[in-house]
Amino acid sequence: MDVESDEMSRFFWCQFSTLWIALSIVGAHENDEPPSANSLSRPQVDLLRDPLPTGALVRYGTTRFRHHAIAVAILDKNIILSVGSSIRYWSAESGQLIRELRHEKLRSAVLGAISADGSRLATLHKSGAIGLWDLASGDLLREFPSGVLSNASQPRDASPVISISSDGNTIMVATPVNAITDQRAGTLVQICVMGTRYESRQFSIDQDEPEAVSLSPDGRFVVAEFNKNQKQEHTTKSLAVWDTSSARQIRVLNIGATSARRIQFLPGRSAFLVEGEQGLVLKDLDGNELWRRPAKSDYLRLICANQKSIVLHVDLDKTNNFEVWTLDANSGETIHRWKEPDWMLAGLPAFLDESRLVVAYESSIRQLALSDGTEIGFRDGHSGKIEKACASPDGRVVATACLSDSYIILWDSASARELRRLSCGSSIFRDFVFSRDGKLLATASNDHCIRVWDVEAGRVLKTVTLANDREVGIQFLESSARIAIASIQSGVFLHEILAAKPPKAFALASPLECGGLIHGYDGRLWAIFLVRRRVNDDSAVTSGIEIWDVLAKRKLREISLKEGGIVSYSISTDRRTLATCDGDGVITLWELATGLRRLVINARGADRERGGVTLFTFSSDGRTMAVSNTQSSAVSLWDLESSRLFGTVRCQCALITSIEFSPDGKRLLSGLDDTTIIAWDMSRAECLPLASKTVLSEGDVARRWDLLRSADGERAFRSEWELAADPERVVEFLRRRLPNAASISPERAKSWIFELDSSEYSVREHASRNLLSNFDQVKDELTTTLRETTSAEIRKRIQRIIDSCDDIVSQPERLQELRAIEVLERIGTPNAVELLKKLSENRARADISDGAAESLHRIKIRKP
Q1: Taking the model in full, what pTM does it have?
Q2: Is residue 639 pLDDT above 90, yes or no?
Q3: Could you tell me the CA-to-CA distances from 737 to 440, 732, 820 in Å, in that order?
Q4: Each residue's pLDDT tens digit, 658-680
Q5: Within its chain, how far is the Cα of 609 from the centroid?
Q6: Tens-place pLDDT, residues 112-132
Q7: Which of 379, 417, 569, 657 has the fewest Cβ atoms within 10 angstroms?
């Protein structure tokens, strides 16, 4: 096909595409009312009537104008185009997605440029390959090999630049490299031409900034800064003009000592802008200066330009007081100026028409009026990928945050409507946690402050400043009147929320890095410390985990991990199981009470999509684990009883960034990179593991009861699930076996302590066992005796008892009883709840009663 016929074909494609999109806009209807409850036969939609993925209940936020784009363009008054992992056409007025074109190779694109007529796209990929695309069809027309990266030793810190000519036939890529010659660094330029034949050529330029290289709109010339005289101490800066057809330098333009940070041609003109420390200059290809805009004391940075206007990012007097200026392209005079939005930065993909500036910020597309900076058509919500989303304990409120916004959004869980925003200036929130009753929310932000908020009123009740320290964990205590804060430098502090009392410090004698705070299975406050092993000078891996009782200030146990270490961990809702994930995607479950391994899941094979960071979380009943990764659009559901994959939910084209079950287990909240959160219906049959129902004989129950004493964590874990499969028989069995311990009188405790100094070994051992098994009741007597006794034997044995009180593996009867509480919680029937209530009321065994009380609280949330 000759060039003329090819141009005619592309013209008709563009006309057809524009007509098709325009007809779609005419047919689009806006309706902010939520869908009716009885429209179950129709596809589910969100508040703006945009479709939801299969299995989704609601969407928090909107997908309108949400796209992590590498290039944007305004096609006409009604249509905005964005390019990221797909090509999307948007209604400029409503933000509704009109059309989407997908191609697998777009997922690897890191830079993009759109031709002036909106017909073609140029992309630079992670491999260094260059793609030329037809935007009307989404087809990859031509892929040029990696001439730039294959001939460069290594890219430097500066980013590459890609440009495309107005007719879409010529592509330029400029990439910084470490060694163009043996003596110095520079920039390598590759020119790709699509005409009667495909051509690719390259040349090197002795300058360090790829942004100071620009392709003319007609694709015939490249203008670049270079150092004219390398050997002089004060080099003279010049502009070189290169002919793209021959890859030869054809002329040199002197610009004195001014260094060019960026060079950009004006669309449709042979004039180009030179941005530098001294200001902004417009020149033509003959080197004539058309106008100059001195920077004076301001810092000017070019955002984008068209034939008539130029938009600048301006730091007034270099005081971080930012404005956006619009200049007349013919004279350089200021037309408009307005305060720059907090989110806007120079260097973002942007496009300009007569009245609007379109900017791709994080995962959102923003339109700004050129006259005053007013935002046009943007729907509220987050602007970047979701970092965290979780529901309040009562399930009524969902809190979400992302690192691109200086606020947390609170949503109504059922309707998905925004309730309020919690904001503290320009600070970015890193973490947050609800109180047990859901009335308070504690937040940690990058201004080194911990704030406690009244969720209903949206106001701050208390602020704790950590100076230059950084928090690593925040947790409410049971009454919600106090909050525990763990920081890197200061240890753990307990703060009264409403009272003006000084904080109480708990210095834990661990030299390790604190990884967070959790409530243990028995309600105690635990700190998790990470054992870090250095791999080399730049990196280390987590090779172990220590668990400390904060209030008692003692280490409970240590879990040694595999040689390769782990990259992340998660705690089950019942605080009995720790899940760790290594770099290969293998998830291991550990029993927190003992440190024993319970189960191994090879989640790497759960989905074909690979890469990113593995995400995983437990369901509230501990039966299901949801697994995904940050380069996947799917969440895999694993049955922890059978260790099998049984279901998948998929978010279509968005990538998963966070996952969390609601406290009642009926919803799975998945944060996405398109700024939204999807709540999945976990009550659907395909999202429920197949519950095993087994009839066990009395002997079967007894054998599995005996295995609950085992130091083999995997066998004990299987036995728990097998017992839970026959609820009626097992509850009656446990009713007879679980302890109904009587209170130990002080006199009885003292007699046992006295027997620790007996001349008979068997008596001393019997007394030690009695004191250890009733430690919660006799610990005060033991502490007093340890301080006052003169007997070396008594002191030695009491110290051994105190040191062994949390070594549950060495106490098989106690271990058996604690695992039986876990079985009863999994069963959760009225008879099991009745037995748990009875156990929670017997304070003679605090570990059993506290564990039973916590189990009852979680069952109440799951089955109100």
Answers
A1: 0.83
A2: yes
A3: 41, 9, 10
A4: 999 999 999 999 999 999 999 99
A5: 17
A6: 999 988 899 999 998 889 999
A7: 417
Per the DSSP assignment, residues forming a β-bridge with 310 are 305, 327
**Of 125, 120, 95, 88, which Cα lies nearest the Cα of 110?**
125
420-439: per-residue pLDDT in tens? 999 988 788 989 999 989 99
Give the whole-angstrom CA distance, residue 802 versus residue 844. Answer: 18
Residue 536, H or E segment: none
DSSP structural state of residue 154: -
The whole-angstrom separation of Cα 694 and Cα 692 is 6
d(CA 550, CA 546): 12
How many angstroms separate the Cα of 74 from the Cα of each of 94, 279, 755?
14, 28, 88
- Class of residue 426 by CB neighbours under 10 A (exposed 0-12, middle 13-18, buried 19+): exposed
Residues 6+ apart with CB under 8 A from 850: 522, 523, 524, 840
Tell me the C-alpha distance between 649 and 679, whole Å: 11
- The reported pLDDT for the residue numbered 422 is 95
Cβ atoms 90, 97 nearer than 8 A: yes
The predicted pLDDT at position 178 comes to 60
pLDDT of residue 576: 93
Per-residue model confidence as pLDDT tens digits over 313-364: 998 888 888 999 999 999 999 999 999 987 887 678 899 898 999 999 988 9
Cα–Cα dist 462/509, whole Å: 28
State the sign of the Cα–Cα–Cα–Cα dihedral 351, 177, 105, 585. negative
In residues, how long is the chain? 864
Q: How does DSSP assign 404-470, residue by residue?
A: T-SEEEEEETTT--EEEEEE-TTPPEEEEEE-TTSSEEEEEETTSEEEEEETTTTEEEEEEE-TT--
Q: Going along 255-405, which residue ranges are E strands?
A: 260-265, 271-276, 279-284, 289-294, 299-305, 309-315, 322-328, 334-339, 350-352, 356-361, 364-369, 375-376, 388-391, 397-401
Looking at residue 701, its pLDDT comes to 95
Q: What share of the chain is helix, strand, coil (3-state, %, to 5)?
A: 20, 40, 40
Nearest to 779 by CA among 756, 802, 760, 763: 802
Region 25-31 average pLDDT: 42
Return left, alpha or beta for 377; rule: phi > 0 is left, psi -120 to 50 is alpha, else beta.
left
Token match 């430690």: residue? 775
Q: How far apart are CA 820 and CA 734, in angstroms?
A: 8
Residue 516 and residue 528 in contact, taking contact as beta carbons nearer than 8 Å: yes
**Strands (DSSP E) found in 520-563:** 525-534, 540-549, 554-560
Amino acid at 112: G
Tokens of 482: 């106090």
Cα 247 to Cα 149, 191, 221, 223: the distances in Å are 18, 8, 9, 12
Q: How far apart are CA 518 and CA 528, in angstroms?
A: 8
Burial of 630 (0-12, 13-18, 19+ CB in 10 A): middle
Question: Which SS3 state, helix, strand or coil, does residue 816 take?
Answer: helix
Q: Which region among 195-199, 301-305, 490-494 has the lowest average model confidence (pLDDT)?
A: 195-199
Higher pLDDT, 692 or 415: 415
Q: Are 526 and 473 in contact, with CB atoms under 8 Å apart?
A: no
Neighbours of 685 (CB within 10 A): 7
Distance of alpha carbon 558 from alpha carbon 280, whole angstroms? 62
* CA–CA distance, 670 with 730 (Å, rounded to integer): 36
CB 488 within 8 A of CB 532: no
Return d(Cα 237, Cα 653) in angstroms, integer: 47
Kindly report the number of other CB atoms within 10 A of residue 272's CB atom: 24
Backbone angles phi, psi at 817, to 5 degrees: -70, -40
